[in-house]
Amino acid sequence: MNNRLINWFKFASPQSFYPLAGRMIPWFWALTAAFGVAGLWISFFVAPTDAQQGEGYRIIFIHVPASWMSMFIYCIMAGWAGLGLVFNTRLSGMMASALAPTGALMAFLSLWTGALWGKPMWGAWWVWDARLTSELILFFLYIGFIALQAAIDDPRRADKAGAILALVGVVNVPIIYFSVKWWNTLHQGSTINLTKAPSMAQTMLWGMLLMALCFWMYSIAVALMRARAIILERETHTEWVKQLDEVKS
Known about the structure:
mainly alpha
């Protein structure tokens, strides 16, 4: 068991993680394509028309997975940032930096698809609803994290400053999730609940879950690609990166 733990711990080194990430990326892109094709087909061609919202409801197959991922990625980003802050590991800060742009993209998609869905349903592109407002704050937290790291020249200092912001901001995630329970909001409650049967047709549920898996695989693939780029940028002075450049040339 101890030998296995040691083998896994070696991937905490950027030098060991870089080739591992390179091997995993094609698999996650393949899964992204597979889940995406299946999810889009079920969501837009198999799932029935909603009795109340008509065809317009189908935007939930993008909106809901994007919203889930925006919260999930922030938690993972904060986790990596916290590990880097506690153990002073280089890879942890790199992974947090790699995740932030994808999380911001998911939050942006959540907000815009929500606006497109809200206009015909509520008659307005935007309302200062508790869930919408807390999701907007999440988007600003991502942008703030990226901007703060970009403003500090020293990567290690930037990682520590970003980690503090990420850990403080993580309190917003449960606020987003529980906002529809804590306050009287326009936003509908959770369609999928771990303690209750889903309040939607099975084909709708499968379409949403497949699209969520697609977004998840996409996020991992892009984060790994970005992490490899960050590793090369930050480790450019090391011997192994110089040797890698020589092999490529």
